[in-house]
Design a protein that fits this description.
Layout (H helix, E strand, L loop, with lengths): L1 H20 L6 H27 L4 H25 L6 H12 L7 H9 L3 H28 L8 H6 L2 H14 L6 H11 L2 H12 L10 H26 L3 H11 L7 H8 L3 H27 L1
Helix pairs in contact: 1-10, 2-8, 2-9, 2-10, 3-4, 3-6, 3-11, 3-12, 4-6, 4-11, 4-14, 5-6, 6-12, 11-12, 11-14
């Protein structure tokens, strides 16, 4: 696992370097948005369609979703309790709640689990994310951001869900799956080719999203609960719930590793949109990502043993 994390770190480092030395005629943020939009609107939906169309829908799908939902609920509750003991502003409270609750299950979870466990984990990752993390983020997460942020814009969580291409791909693929519609060979090759770009581009975009200037010493006391909840307690909850539900051992390992992923990158966009403390959230992404090199390695060896 450590070697895999270091390999991932190399691709992330490419993104960091590109952010620093990108051609001056285009702003660095424009490069990042172009990459993330390409993945979000084209490549990731292609991956979802390709994988879910052929994936088995059985009891494990519900178990994965319930495990992920339980992990999100416990993480959010624990962070909310921790906030009672911290003297922080409302925009900081909202940023910390999001940072402690939502793992980077797709952007980092997809390549990591694929490398250490195999390509079969793509199904687990997409179910974990699209049947739990993304719907909760775009409903409960946005409601939290609106409540603690400084924006007065009206929100419609259901409309936000309708604007997510991977969820549309999930719905279409699910219909094609349950109706036993065969996947044409030409289309299968096209979807597989597009899917191949998801992992490297996501890791490069992750590197371009890291903001080194945000990790300030004044943030450390606020970020310690986030790190403990996201990297230690969340996977413990996933392990307990998944075991209770009877998840098969290899699937359980994948689910626990997904729950142990660092803070979700996409939350930075929500913080910017709803005027939460984006610098604090970015610091949480940076710190949990660095610490996860060690914690994910430990979790993998514990689960393997």
């Amino acid at each position: 696992m450590l070697m895999v994390m270091l390999q991932m770190a190399l691709l992330i480092a490419v993104g960091v370097l590109w952010q620093r030395f990108a051609p001056a005629h285009i702003a660095a943020i424009a490069h990042r948005r172009a990459l993330t939009d390409l993945v979000f609107y084209i490549l990731l939906p292609a991956l979802v369609l390709h994988v879910i169309w052929q994936a088995p829908f059985d009891a494990s799908s519900l178990k994965i979703s319930l495990t992920a939902l339980s992990t999100l609920a416990v993480s959010m509750l624990l962070m909310w309790l921790c906030l009672k003991c911290l003297n922080v502003s409302r925009p900081q409270q909202g940023a910390l709640l999001l940072a402690a609750t939502f793992p980077n299950a797709t952007y980092l979870g997809l390549p990591v689990t694929g490398q250490v466990l195999g390509d079969w984990t793509q199904v687990v990752v997409l179910k974990f994310d699209l049947l739990a993390c993304t719907p909760v983020l775009l409903t409960v997460g946005i409601l939290i951001a609106h409540r603690f942020g400084n924006t007065q814009d009206k929100i419609h969580p259901l409309q936000e869900l309708m604007r997510v291409p991977p969820l549309w791909a999930l719905a279409i693929a699910s219909v094609l799956n349950v109706t036993h519609t065969p996947q044409p060979e030409l289309l299968a090759h096209a979807l597989q080719t597009l899917s191949g770009g998801v992992v490297p581009l996501m890791l490069i975009a992750l590197g371009m999203s890291i903001r080194w200037d945000t990790l300030q010493t004044r943030f450390i006391p606020m970020l310690l609960p986030v790190c403990v909840i996201a990297l230690v307690i969340a996977p413990l909850v996933a392990l307990g719930v998944g075991s209770t539900l009877g998840l098969e051992s290899s699937t359980l390992t994948a689910v626990v590793l997904l729950a142990a992923m660092p803070t979700m990158i996409f939350g930075i966009v929500i913080c910017e949109r709803y005027q939460l403390d984006g610098a604090l959230y970015a610091a949480a992404v940076f710190l949990t990502s660095i610490l996860s090199i060690a914690t994910l390695t430990i979790w993998f060896h514990v689960l393997s043993g």
